[in-house]
Amino acid sequence: MDRIELNKAEHFKGEFSPTPDKSISHRAVICASLAKGKSIIRNFLKAEDPMSTLHAFRALGVDIDDRGEDILVNGKGIHGLRESSDVIDCGNSGTTIRLLSGVLSGNPFFSVLSGDSSLRKRPMARVIEPLSRMGAEILARAENRYPPLAIKGGSLQAITYSIPVASAQVKSSLILAGLYASGETVITEPAKSRDHTERMLPAFGAEIAVNGLRVSIKSGTELQGTDVYVPGDFSSAAFFIVGALLIKNADITITGVGINPTRTGLLGVLKEMGADIEISRIREVSGEPLADIHCSGGAALKAVSITKEKIPALIDEFPILCVAATQAAGITTIRGAEELRIKESDRIRSMATELRKMGAEAEEFEDGLNIKGRSSLKGSEIESYGDHRIAMAMAIAGLVAEGTTTIHGVSSVNISFPGFFQHLRKLTL
Ligand code: S3P
Is the shortest distance between the CB of 288 and ligand 1 below 6 Å? Predict the structure, then answer.
């Protein structure tokens, strides 16, 4: 049965490492597949989304050996991919389809990319337009807007492009296409989105320069295989951080969490709300900062106001931030977040609807939400909309609510965090 029952938690204690980072796992497979020679990816996230990327590169002829936690990739260089004999299934993964579109635009063969019913509703014009300008032939459903995508790559020309929305998927897609384009590709984003691609590619030998919001990439260098260690996923840790803050007497330590500043906007917001969070043992591995995070419960939280410029660094933490807001004194306002309507589900609608079922007061806007805090949540029947982050955020709400909460569609957590509920159970025992 694809559902789980949760009750109010009296206990939330322990030390653990979160699952490996999803965004970095995707990029490690992509970079290693495009490099010449052997790369070992350590601490790879074996969840459905990064596995979609791994299977896609196997379908494109890359030799990838799954050795448990480590993945061994024997790449043949950026021109070493071959045409897949079938449609490439990107599953639920926006990162797979958009980043792969960039790679395949530079390859002179035919590819078809598709995915599940959620992915087939996600906008692709944002990558199709600039990639077509670079010289790729791309056709898509519904007047070139939605997957499936059919791509015939070719000889690309570098472009100078301003991305209309802050999106690491669009930026990364164009960086990857830039590896194949003649000349220097220059991309400017309106606000800083996650920069894992720019951090990782130079270790494989790519020539990339970053200057504030501007990224430029020169083609012509062969990528060479190297080893990559994937840090713990801050976005997965976020559910436990907020859980600890909302449960009285909670005390948890999460070790080896990635704290790349383009990802950790939630920490600043929670501290502004009055949260008790300590960061220690900051170190760097494979070009990414990581640390241990300690948090304890019981502090009285207060509402905050979040505006557009803060959204990119907490884009995936919106669902769990909404749960924190239900327990903070005052009205929390989140605006400038219209991108959330086109994620794995319409996350503004999903969170407003499900939190209201539990008794919270939420007012929906096209670009965000107002949430009135200090609500006493009550156990309810909750829908995940097949969206992993909605299922996990609402599970944390279930630990704070009086009575029993049943979450339907919990297998969606396998997209980014297999074992989430077992982990949660251990901390609450
Ligand atoms: C991601 C970028 C973000 C994020 C997604 C992962 C990535 O999407 O929401 O979960 O790995 O590049 P957008 O690029 O659409 O903002």
Answer: no
Q: Is 332 in the pocket of ligand 1 (CB under 6 A)?
A: no
What whole-number distance in Å separates Cα of residue 53 and Cα of residue 55? 6
Report the nearest-CA residue for atom 10 of ligand 1: 316
Q: Report whether 399 contacts 10 (CB < 8 A).
A: no
Alpha-carbon distance 104 to 58, whole Å? Answer: 14
Beta 228-229 vs 184-188: how paired, if at all? unpaired
Examine the pLDDT at 1 and tell me if it is beyond 80: no
Residue 61 per-residue DSSP state: T
Amino acid at 282: I
Q: Which residues are catalytic?
A: 316
Looking at the CA of residue 342, tell me the nearest atom of ligand 1.
15
401 is written with which tokens?
């609510």
Q: How confident is the model at residue 416 (pLDDT cuts 50, 70, 90)?
A: very high
Question: How far is the centre of ligand 1, averaged over its atoms, from the C-alpha of 169 (Å)?
Answer: 5
Single-letter residue type at 315: I
Residue owning the nearest CA to atom 4 of ligand 1: 316
pLDDT exceeds 90 at position 298: no
Residues 102-108 have a mean pLDDT of 98
Please state, in angstroms and rounded to a whole number, the distance separating the CA atoms of residues 377 and 6.
13
Going from the Cα of 168 to the center of ligand 1, the distance in angstroms, rounded, reads 6
Helix (H, G, I), strand (E, B) or coil at 67: strand
Is there an atom of ligand 1 within 6 Å of 27 CB? Answer: no
CA end-to-end distance (rounded Å), the chain = 23
- Show the domains of the chain with their CATH numbers: 3-20+231-428 (3.65.10.10), 22-229 (3.65.10.10)
pTM attached to this predicted model: 0.98
Contact present, 279 and 260 (Cβ < 8 Å): no
- What contacts 328, CB < 8 A, 6 or more positions away? 273, 274, 301, 302, 303, 304, 373, 374
Answer whether 111 contacts ligand 1 (Cβ < 6 A): no
